[in-house]
Specification:
With 297 residues, the protein is α+β, with helices and mostly antiparallel strands. Helices cover 39% and strands 20% of the residues. The longest helix has 17 residues. The protein binds iron/sulfur cluster (3 copies).
């Protein structure tokens, strides 16, 4: 048995079912995502059937993402120390029932792998590896088992370069949490709503119930300096989630629809937009804040 498999087995202890799920998920990433892709249109036809929210809630409480802003993404990819935050307090950041451990161990040990969603949806823009596993435990498993998905070891700088390049093309970042991977984060994704099963799943489940989403908002909302805004409409086109509109020459913003991804801020040529920590939203996955207020000592 390979060392990385042994580490994974040890992590799951007696929950051999979770070990098997984890093993299948990462060793056969693509068929796993392909099955979800095939099921989604059916779910899209059944949004009128409200009891389906029970299924969505079951899945999402065990497998979900936290959207992360550019600044918070950069902090994660600059980590040079271990972070362990395991407590119910984390639910202020990740308000989910089962998977909410914030664990970054040897976070500078990074593997990049092809994104199965982009492959399934035939994303023509991004062909390079854009999923990142942080930490030796998971990254070495990818390197051992993900050759078919071009898994390779990358530096923090290489990962950030890819992320910055893709953000310019309209991709956002998410940290994924999954019960089967130990209930903690470990994978940082770079996703586009047109080619991401997770964002597509949420677009469907939000029709069942507006709060039924696999993707937790970053925790930031956007403020606009109206003196700087030239009403060019770029932010309207940039936002994937319909949070910004231009109605009769007036720019409107619906923060309930905003995931705080920061794309509009990056794309405003007038620097009229900025993020602020919104007290009515989940707390951001800001490593400085996690170290100060959430980490176990
Ligand atoms: S969640 Fe995002 S990066 Fe991860 S596999 Fe799907 S599209 Fe790719
Ligand atoms: S991109 Fe900036 S300048 Fe253009 S409408 Fe949006 S806030 Fe205003
Ligand atoms: S308004 Fe849209 S683009 Fe801007 S941060 Fe919110 S979700 Fe992202």
């Amino acid at each position: 048995m390979k060392e990385s498999t042994r580490i994974m087995l040890k992590k799951h202890g007696w929950r051999i079912d979770r070990f098997i799920h984890n093993y299948i998920y990462f060793a056969f990433y693509y068929p796993y995502v392909k099955i979800v892709q095939l099921v989604l249109p059916l779910a899209g036809l059944l949004t009128w059937f409200k009891p389906l929210s029970v299924v969505g809630d079951f899945v999402f409480s065990r497998y979900h993402s936290k959207v992360i802003s550019v600044g918070d993404t950069q902090k994660i990819f600059s980590l040079n120390e271990d972070i362990t935050a395991i407590s119910e307090k984390n639910k202020r950041i990740i308000p989910m029932k089962y998977a909410f451990k914030i664990l970054f161990k040897e976070a500078d040990y990074i593997a990049a792998m092809d994104c199965p969603c982009k492959k399934a949806y035939n994303d023509k823009v991004v062909t390079e590896p854009s999923c990142f596993a942080l930490g030796k435990g998971l990254a070495s498993f990818w390197l051992d088992h993900g050759q078919k998905y071009h898994a390779r070891k990358v530096t923090q700088k290489e990962a950030l370069d890819t992320i910055n390049k893709l953000r310019k093309l309209g991709y956002i970042n998410q940290a994924f949490f999954k019960v089967a991977t130990g209930g903690s984060t470990g994978v940082i994704c770079t996703c586009h709503p047109d080619t991401c099963v997770s964002l597509k799943a949420s677009a469907i489940t939000k029709k069942i119930h507006p709060y039924l989403s696999q993707n937790i908002e970053s925790g930031y909302s956007v403020q606009c300096d109206t003196k700087k805004c030239k009403k060019c409409g770029t932010c309207v086109k940039t936002c994937h989630f319909g949070a910004i509109k231009m109605v009769n020459g007036i720019r409107t913003y619906n923060k309930d629809l905003c995931l705080g991804c920061e794309l509009c801020v990056e794309n405003c040529a007038q620097n009229a937009l900025s993020l602020y920590v919104d007290p009515v939203k989940a707390v951001p996955l800001d490593i400085d804040l996690v170290k100060k207020e959430f980490a176990n000592r």
